Amino acid sequence: RHVMSNAVAFGNSTGHFDFNRRCTILLYYLVTHTTKKQFMSLTITDLSCGYHGVPLFSNFNLTVDKGDIVCLLGPNGVGKTTLFKTILGFIRPESGHITIDGKDSTTLSRRTFAAHVAYVPQTSETPFPLKTIDVVLTGCAGQLSIFDTPHEADYKRAHQILNELGVDHLSHRQFDELSGGERQMVLIARALMQNAQILIMDEPTSALDFGNQMRVLSCVKHLAQHGHGILMTSHNPDHAYLCGSSATLIMDNGTIVSGSVEDVVTADNLQRTYHIDIGVYDVQEDDGTHIRTCIPHLT
After folding, report:
1. Residue 34 and residue 47: Cα distance in Å, rounded?
2. What are the residues facing 291 on neighbouring strands?
3. Nearest by Cα to 10 from 225, 212, 220
4. CB contact at 8 A, 172 and 129
5. Which of 129, 131, 172, 216 has its CB surrounded by the most CB atoms within 10 Å?
6. How far is the C-alpha of 293 from the C-alpha of 95, rounded, in Å?
7. Which sign does the torsion angle of CA 116, 70, 27, 204 carry?
8. Are 229 and 284 within 8 A, CB to CB?
9. 198-215 pLDDT, tens per residue?
10. What is the distance, to the nearest Å, from the Cα of residue 20 to the centroid of all Cα atoms in its chain?
């Protein structure tokens, strides 16, 4: 596998990396090139989801609105992936409702649903070799008829999105030859190609090195500032502090805690969730601003 051994992977041909400039250009592109439409909020009400009549958790409530970044936290096996499968329509809820702008998601066609909600997996494998540009173009499949193929305008838009994310130089590379960080940016590009306003991200920083985690989180934050609504999972509570507007914590006993990041991601809640000794501390930066961070205490 290729590694991020040079800055060209997320920068320009000289190896210089300026992520803030990339995000500024991306926002300009999104404002001037995407279709204007009213934002459709995602609302989950009294949801119970699981398998074969056995719910993993019950009475789950959540809203993703314009500009939100909702961070979903919890240990392995509590049902985060099952929740995403239920939202995306692969599993029917045991009870409760999922609505898009007040309309029951189960009554929407797949094409209509895809026009409002896009999914970014934590990893993706292609069954046969595909170039990066072709992976991005699959994001417009919901906008095409069954026998249609992407048009010249679709190719142009795909290249524009890749360029503003700083990875257009990868457009003709084989997707399965890219590094983890490069793949994640391509998957985000595919979601943007779908032109949906709600992004469901399953551990977008999974298996990435520290630098690429921060670049992906910065991209997520800028997308929310532009007006996308984002629901993302993470195994790192610090990610909620860095970019979350709210947080939901699912514990292994089925308890669900939702609210502001400061109220949810506390030392007590984290200890009850992960069963480890952990502290939450305020750190003052040089400019006087305060940030929070989680530090586990090893025994």
Report:
1. 32
2. 283
3. 212
4. no
5. 216
6. 36
7. negative
8. no
9. 999 999 998 888 998 998
10. 19
Residue 67 gets the label, from left (phi > 0), alpha (psi -120 to 50) or beta, of left
Comparing C-alpha atoms, which of 60, 59, 49, 57 is closest to residue 248?
A: 60
Beta strands at 54-64 and 69-73: parallel, antiparallel or unpaired: unpaired
68: Cβ contacts below 8 Å, ≥ 6 apart:
224, 229, 230, 245, 246
Measured distance CA(75)–CA(250) in Å, rounded = 8
Distance CA 17, CA 212 (A): 12
CB 123 within 8 A of CB 206: yes
Instruction: Give residue 26's pLDDT.
Output: 52
Contact (Cβ atoms closer than 8 angstroms) between residue 81 and residue 91:
no
3-state secondary structure 7-18: HHHHCCCCCCCC
Cβ-count burial 138-152 (b if 16+ within 10 Å, e if not): ebbebeeeeeeebee
HEC secondary structure over 52-118: CCEEEEEEEEEEECCCCEEEEECCCCCCHHHHHHHHCCCCCCCEEEEEECCEEHHHCCHHHHHHHEE
3-state DSSP percent of the chain in helix, strand and coil, to 5: 40, 25, 35
Rounded CA-CA distance 243/80 in Å is 19
User: Pick from 298, 284, 275, 294: which is nearest to 71 by CA?
Assistant: 294
Q: If pLDDT is split at 50, 70 and 90, which confidence band does 217 have? A: very high
**Other CB atoms within 10 A of residue 193 CB:** 24
**Cα–Cα distance, 275 to 256 (Å, whole number):** 16
Dihedral through CA 3, CA 5, CA 9, CA 13, nearest 10? -150
Convert 117-133 to b/e letters by CB count within 10 Å (16 or more is b).
bbbbbbeeeeeeeeebb
